[in-house]
Amino acid sequence: MTVVVKVGGATGNTVEGVLADLASRPEFVLVHGGSAEVDRLGAALGRPSEYYTSPSGVVSRRSDPAHLEVVVLALAGKVQTELVAGLARHGRVAVGLSGVDGGLLRAQPKAGARARIDGRVVRLADDRSGRIESVNVPLLRLLLDAGIAPVVGPPAVTPSGEIVNVDADRAAACIAVALGAEALLLLTNVPGLLRDLRDPASVIPWVPRADVEAALALAEGRMRKKLLAAREAVEGGVRTVVIGPSGAPHPVESALRGEGTVIE
Known about the structure:
With about 260 residues, this protein is of the alpha/beta class. Helix content is about 35%, strand content about 25%. The chain has one domain (about 5-264): Acetylglutamate kinase-like (Carbamate kinase), CATH 3.40.1160. The chain has helices spanning about 15-25, 35-45, 65-90, 135-145, 170-180, 210-220, 225-235, 250-255; strands spanning about 5, 30, 50-55, 60, 95-100, 105-110, 115, 120-125, 130-135, 150-155, 155, 165, 185-190, 205, 240-245, 260-264.
C-alpha cells in the first residue's frame, strides 16, 4: 500500500511521531512544507515573509525572487535535511529531493498572482510561483523499489529550468495521483476541518467528494489549500484523503483509521 504523507511546517506541527510511524511502513513518500522555518530564516536575513489573500480567499506566500531564495535555503536545506536525519534515527534510509532534483516536479509559471488588497484586486509583480504539471514517477519508483524513502518538498522547476515555488499540499496531491497511491494524509496543526475555528472538538469527520465545494466555504486561510489538494487527489483517483493532526499519538496510523477529516 503506497501512502503519501504531507506534514505541515507551520508552528504547532510536530514531526517525531510522524517519522516514527513511517519508519516501519514498507512504502511511502513524505512531502513537507516549512512555513515556520521560512518565516524564521527570512526574518533573520532581513527578508520577512509576505502573505496575500487571493480573490477566492486562499492565503499564499508571496514568492518574489528574493523570497524564493529563502524558500530554497529553508526547505531544500534545513527542513529536508532534518527530516532525512530523523528517519535515519528510526533506522530508515531516506533521500531528500526538492522538486528541482531530477525534474521531480515540473511546473508552469503562473500567469500572474492576484491579491485582494483594500477591497481591490491587483496583480503581484515579480511572482515566482507555479502550478505542477507532471511528476517524475520513474525517479520515485527507482527509490521506492530500492527500499529508500523519498522526502520531497518545494520548489519545482519549469521546462526552461526556472525555479518556482509551489504549494506543498498540492504537490503531495500530484505525487499521490501520479503514483496511484491508495491514501494521501495531510497532517497539520489542527485536528481536521473545523466547523468552528475556536472549538477543536468541532471536527467534521467526513466530507463526500460532492460536498468539497461546500466545505471550502467553511475553511479559512491555509485549510482551503488542503481541501483543494484533497479534491485534486480524489478526482485523480486517490481513494482516501485524510486531514488530521500531526501531533496525535501515532499520527499516521490514526489518520489511516480515519481520525480527522476524511475526504473520499
